Amino acid sequence: MPNFPRGVKFRFNKAKEQWVILAPERLLVPDETAVEVLKLCDGSASVGNIVDDLAARFNAPRDVIATDVAALLQDLADKGFITA
After folding, report:
1. Nearest to 80, CA basis, from 15, 25, 33
2. Residue 50 Cα distances to 8, 15, 17, angstroms
3. 9-78: which CATH number, 1.10.10.1150, 3.30.70.1110, 3.10.20.30, 1.10.3720.10?
4. Domain limits of the chain?
5. How many CB atoms lie within 10 A of CB 32?
């Protein structure tokens, strides 16, 4: 179940009107697609639940969503922005 590790925050920056991931000495501005995935990464939803939610919400093929979500989460995990 993807979640943000200790010290990493996913927040909306009101001044710049954009979502950001804040980590010690690092900042990431995710694109719109990543924001939709990250909003669901609360530590209680499994990757499968996230994929199901997004596939239903955007009326998209589950296998395409699953591939994209897995790649995004792996990239963020490799960079230390999220834990699985």
Report:
1. 25
2. 20, 29, 24
3. 1.10.10.1150
4. 9-78
5. 8
> Nearest 5°: CA angle at 18, between 40 and 58?
40
Burial class (CB in 10 A: 0-12, 13-18, 19+), 27: exposed
pTM here is 0.90
Q: Cα separation of 28 and 19, whole Å?
A: 9
| Distance of alpha carbon 3 from alpha carbon 57, whole angstroms | 21
CA dist 13 and 28 (Å) reads 12
The mean per-residue pLDDT over the stretch 65-76 comes to 96
Q: What tens digit of pLDDT does each residue of 1-38 get? A: 999 999 999 999 999 999 999 999 999 999 999 999 99
Whether 21 and 60 have beta carbons less than 8 Å apart is answered as: no
